[in-house]
Amino acid sequence: MAKELKELTKRADNYSQWYNDLVMKADLAEQSPVRGCMVIKPYGYAIWEKMQQQLDKMFKETGAQNAYFPLLIPKSFLSKEAEHVEGFAKECAVVTHYRLRAKEDKSGVEVDPTAKLDEELIIRPTSETIIWNTYKNWIHSWRDLPLMCNQWCNVMRWEMRTRPFLRTSEFLWQEGHTAHATKEEAEAEAQKMLHIYAEFAEKWMAVPVMQGVKSETERFAGALDTYTIEAMMQDGKALQSGTSHFLGQNFAKAFDVTYLNKENKPEYVWATSWGVSTRLIGALIMTHSDDNGLVLPPQLAPIQVVIVPISKGEEQLKSITERLSPIINGLKDLGISVKYDDADNKRPGFKFADYELKGVPVRLCMGGRDLENGTIEIMRRDTLEKETVAIEGIVEHVKVLLDEIQNNMFEKAKSYRDSHIYECDNYDEFKERIKDGGFFLCHWDGTSETEAKIKEDTQATIRCVPFDFEQTPGTDMVSGKPATKRVLIARSY
């Protein structure tokens, strides 16, 4: 790797610094002048765009439609749902004043150009309140249901400890908000969206996830149930990667959203909300990347194939380019994104290191000898394996290879995750082993007191009651009380 790219901290030396280095050096994002906010650079935003495009397609297949709701929310709206306002009270950024054009009084002295708002405004931390106030005007009868909207936007939560993509004061996300005639429809919708998130994580991000339901303490403020997908990072910590909430009738009652049923009687609607954010980019980085830089799954890589010619002189470059042109066109015809880097401003070695750093899944390279022999060098980013192959059939070879890389990345991550899932029934043992990370399946008595003690003693939390784990009764390892289920416990981001 080129000397100027060797400064990436090793994971084994400092995992947290490795992550921060990689975000900056791979041109994903950088710090902004505003504390806790980031500038997402073009390469990082290109990954988010690919995520958006696929998720948006999946949402619309369920019947959801995109809309947009205001950034500013009247403060009084939040107070209408007690649990909601309590849950977000410490995270809200509040607009209290607006600025007027500077004025002078009759004596020529400039007066204060600011004026206080009649009602303070909250910069949205989430949009349930403003959306349900709007839904009140849209929903009248059972014919208006289900109502299913999604918006792509930014939100603001005044975080004290921030890290690019994983936890920032301002971040990008999507938030879906649906209204239904019955409890059963709403619960089914909330779980359906969770499964969509899990499908996206595993098939496009190559990130295996555990699906489950949150404990009462960990659920979304104002929800009756919160469903989650939890992913394991390479340091053994959990990352909540997407949530879907069954809101019951809480927001409908708070904002008086009713509909006339088929018997012409008024009923409150049932609600869900669901969202994922740019935190998914953090999950992508920490699940797959290595000490050389990013490792991106082909499904989400902005550049899936980079082709670098190595030539001596313009004539040889021209000949190599002519030989490579049909390959470039053939790959593009298959919908594969290709970059042909024939710029002479950087040495080939620097280019190779840079594309490794940025996680481009496949690199092709052709020099003068390859041109003569009818061969081409191919390298896969996930394993760093190189081979020289015949140029004939290379387009199909690359297509198959991209699929193989995608599958290999998922299987590698799943193997790591599965080998770090443990059943544990002894609290002293748990307190020691949790320091090294991993997912622990432990019996829980269902009390918030036990949950709080685990967090206080170990900094680990109950991530969820997992769906895909056969539940058996047992004894809580902390309290010694009877327990009906095992929960997933881990330290988390």
What does this structure look like?
With 493 residues, the chain is α+β, with helices and mostly antiparallel strands. It has three domains: 15-95 and 113-288, BirA Bifunctional Protein, domain 2 (2-Layer Sandwich), CATH 3.30.930.10; 305-407, 3-Layer(aba) Sandwich (Rossmann fold); 421-490, Translation Initiation Factor IF3 (2-Layer Sandwich). The chain contains 14 helices and 27 strands. Strands 3-9-10-16-13-12-11-24-27-23-22 form an eleven-stranded mixed sheet. Strands 18-17-19-20-21 form a five-stranded mixed sheet, sandwiched between helices. Helix 2 (42-61) packs across helix 6 and helix 9 (314-333) packs across helix 12. The radius of gyration is 26 Å and the shape is globular. It starts with 14 loop residues before the first helix and ends with a strand. The relative contact order is 0.12.
